[in-house]
């Protein structure tokens, strides 16, 4: 193939890539745009003028504010629990050889591939059979279970690339097992831990399917949005979504900058 043909192929590939990026970004762009929509009727699906008032009235709908607060608290708590358990499990399966390791790896990847409908139904059956009241606690348990595997996989991938001689050198120099973990192992796997934490938080805060099975009377942000479709989604939803997206982008950029500086 000639150089001209290769250049044309490269250009077509670049154009296709940008089209895919634009297609994937279009829902987010629409959400951000309609956060500035001067809604004058029940519908918020047509552009009716530019305004900033919805940012000033962000928390004017009490039920929506409560739902957002529930989602943030549940996501934060479930992420902390998931990161602690997932980091230890990721270290175990990535560093050591033990009986049942194959079954553990299988269960980790099976949890990732299990449809949310199946997981939600199975958790509902578990909670009902155990006479557990469905509330924010059962949502946290559910979110930990379906996000744990993502933390394990990211931490395990980081652990596999570590040089064991670094830990051996720390112990030879007199560091205790805890000191070696705190000063050598944990900083080395922290990029994987941070990536797993961001995945767990994102999976938790936007989950609808599993949450709808185990929420009881607790309403989260996604559940509130789906429930308000018939009456009309207020512009505050778009504003909240924009702010959540913006914070997520800032965290991702900060993590990338920190990783580049460490490199």
From TrEMBL:
Heme listed as a keyword: no
Subcellular location(s) of the protein: Cell membrane
Cellular-component GO terms for this entry: plasma membrane
Highest rank taxon of the organism: Bacteria
Keywords, ordered alphabetically: Cell membrane, Membrane, Transmembrane, Transmembrane helix, Transport
One Pfam family recorded for the sequence: BPD_transp_1
Membrane disposition: Multi-pass membrane protein
Protein name: Spermidine/putrescine transport system permease protein
Organism: Nonomuraea pusilla
